[in-house]
User: What shape does this take?
Amino acid sequence: MSAAARAFVLRHARLRPVPGLEGIRLHLADDVLTLWHAVQLETK
Assistant: This one.
């Protein structure tokens, strides 16, 4: 993963546990529309 992609994920998502899968955490966004808008701005 590029440094830019890693920085984008860290800016827009939080590392959270996965319910029912102990020990697994994923980077998840709070609001999908905000994330989608950020992706649109980054990829123009």
